Amino acid sequence: NCKNVSKCRKKSSPKKRLRKAKRKTPVRKKKLKVEKNLKKEECVSENEISDPFHCSSCKVSFKRKSYLLAHLARHKTQKEFQCPQCPFKSQYKTSLNQHMWSHSDVKLFKCLECPYEAKTKLYLTLHLRTHSVEKAYKCSDCSYECNQGTSMKVHMLEHSNIKRFHCANCDYKTNRKGDLNRHLLIHLNLNLFKCTLCSFECKLKGSLKLHMLTHSDVMLFKCSFCSYECKQKSRLKMHILTHTNIKLFRCSLCNYEANYKPNLKNHMLKHTNIKLFHCALCDYKCNQKHSLKTHLLKHEEDV
User: Fold this and answer.
1) Which domain holds residue 48?
2) What does the record give under GO molecular function (predicted)?
């Protein structure tokens, strides 16, 4: 029968036989898929290793574009968001929002053991540690104790004789980069921070904050042993030491001991020949700012 023969020929055509052969070998097909997936994974791993997003300003590279964009923002010299109440500027709006809390009198977080109030939860957490009798960290070289590991690290630098940071303009040396940066301002005549209520100007932001307290009559901090009141927490801490015989700060060159760290710093200048302060009217030099102020009064008397 010719019709049956033609049907048989159609069924046994080369294309159909190839399709049937492919369907009969599923294992080979799976192997091909696995090989393709392996090639894709190799490409992905190579991209991850090479970090395809590169910074054009430096040699840093990143795995994701979002990381690169965040990094590029750091290269911007112009800070878009500025505080309307002080010279603070930031590249990020969130940083400005956090900063604005420093100008607010609203304190949402309150201590249950004393009248202390804080603007942030972090400050309250740090304050609560002051109520604990036993300090978590103790200095092995003196009687200093604290509740924060970072504070202990900073304190241990006081016992170190290694001065890693040197001033290029004078013989000043220190073991803290922040102290060197503050010292360098002495060699500049620029007062970056100005008071909006008077003619006071200063080089440090912290000095302006302390000055602003002079325009306020509110005494935020009170001594629990006497009627002493003050505007600064640091002053209260120093005052409380007067009720004890503990001398936390000791001179490494003599037997001098002090309750206050600034007193020890002033004392240490006596062991050096560094004269940081110079009189502009004569050749007088000294190592303490208040000594220079006292000296300048003599020139006013002469006038």
Assistant:
1) 37-75
2) zinc ion binding
